[in-house]
Amino acid sequence: MDFSWRRGGLLRGERVFNHVRRLVKNDHIEQCAMPFGAVTTNLSTGRELWLTEGDLHQAVRASCSMPGLLAPVAWNGYWLVDGAVVNPVPISLTRALGADIVIAVDLQHDAHLMQQDLLSITPQSVEDQTTATATSWGGRLRQSLARVAQRKVNQTPAAMEIMSTSIQVLENRVKRNRMAGDPPDVLIQPFCPQISTLDFHRAEEAIEAGKLAVEKKMDELLPLVRQHELPGEK
Fold first, then answer.
1. Comparing C-alpha atoms, which of 131, 151, 149 is closest to residue 140?
2. pTM, two decimal places
3. Per-residue pLDDT for 33 more than 70?
């Protein structure tokens, strides 16, 4: 991961998004097999902007540029950041794209607010982490956070912790208000508070949490699937 405070965020994001570009071969949204749209926030107007055509990779990058963490994206003379600032669970966009049934996934619900560190801290000592992961960016950042965690009791939260948690508190408020007027047909909320913001290496744990959350909603999901089965399908 590439660090930089001079580009509008803790991370520039070039490395991770270059990797995504190698995995996702389509360059334009119009090439997607299914309708796709990304929600972003226009910093100049404060309004949400739906990206439903054009550069796919830029749209995805803009839609997840969390303020202060990932650098904003320039788009047609504006700066765009994470759409979650104004529309955390974009039910409205999916309906506008023609969805008959909306199954929403909420990753940032209240159960996660008690842990908002950038990287999770393992029980290992700082010395053990130094020998095991000193060569990686994550290792170096984890060492710094671990040292902070050891002195964290009865101390003021760190700046990034305050920023991250505050943003998510605001997002949760916006989300509840919007879903009250336009609720999804099914709401899935994976529970994985042990996985922090930059724990990209813990994807398998996140996937398992998602599977468990889906299993808990099977009673709601199966009738919808059966309702929309094509003739001859089972």
1. 131
2. 0.71
3. yes
